């Protein structure tokens, strides 16, 4: 939808996001999805998060890929004479993936690397970087949403290895994760593989600081959602009137992030032509970061044709990359 603010400027409104804000802030309890964290500022804050001392996830998974590439390659059971497609869901900056790509190229495997991302900009940066670092790698970027692109490969007769790293599955509620895995499985053929990175259940003393760092970067990441609503929908959130509040339940392995209203207040959202009321201490649930163990993963996979073949962990057992095979 295009809204003409005046004769010279045109603002495009993300209607799906606006509908979500309307639904989430008019619900009780209030919620907003972490899917909307990732605007230009959110992307930059997430890169900072990945380098924070408290955010162990990226380093732990990088260690697995850096220390065990040959064990992973041999578990993939690839035949050197058979071409395969190496598909990555969510391109990122490729830092971790390069640990696999380099030995695959050096060992003369026949494959194309097909990173899928919604952002063409992210894909262009990745492609340029890979050209410099691994000149013999064949990269075919795929812009679009995961399932749209996977659907287009569905009938390819080539074996596929799909990478879904970074515990991104953890940002889904369990029912959503289960239907995501069902859909993924339906787009694969028998013997195709999925290499799935998941953060493991562990004590609160390790998990909570990762979502509540001393420098306040994660707080800024969470609060940026309100800034986004201000910019895109003419809202008047004063972010100083909200605070970032993460919680973690060791028993279930579920971390949740909230924005908590510091006082009773009403906030105007112009694009909704509405005031939203907050009580003092009222929470907006903004993110789930589920931690896994093998039993939980098995439950998520129960309606799919995917089975766990092997598991790779870092030295501290903080993170696990599971190799799944479609039966
Ligand atoms: C992208 N995702 C796996 C991150 C996580 O750990 O849930 C997003 C994040 N949220 C706060 N810090 C990092």
UniProtKB/TrEMBL annotation:
Keywords: Methyltransferase, Transferase
GO molecular function: methyltransferase activity
Record's keyword annotation contains Transcription: no
GO biological process: methylation
Any Pfam family hit: Methyltransf_33
Domain (Histidine-specific methyltransferase SAM-dependent): residue spans on this chain: 20-324
SUPFAM superfamilies: S-adenosyl-L-methionine-dependent methyltransferases
PANTHER family assigned to the protein according to its UniProt record, in alphabetical order: ERGOTHIONEINE BIOSYNTHESIS PROTEIN 1 (PTHR43397:SF1)
Protein name: Histidine-specific methyltransferase SAM-dependent domain-containing protein
Originating species: Cellulophaga algicola (strain DSM 14237 / IC166 / ACAM 630)
Lineage: Bacteria, Pseudomonadati, Bacteroidota, Flavobacteriia, Flavobacteriales
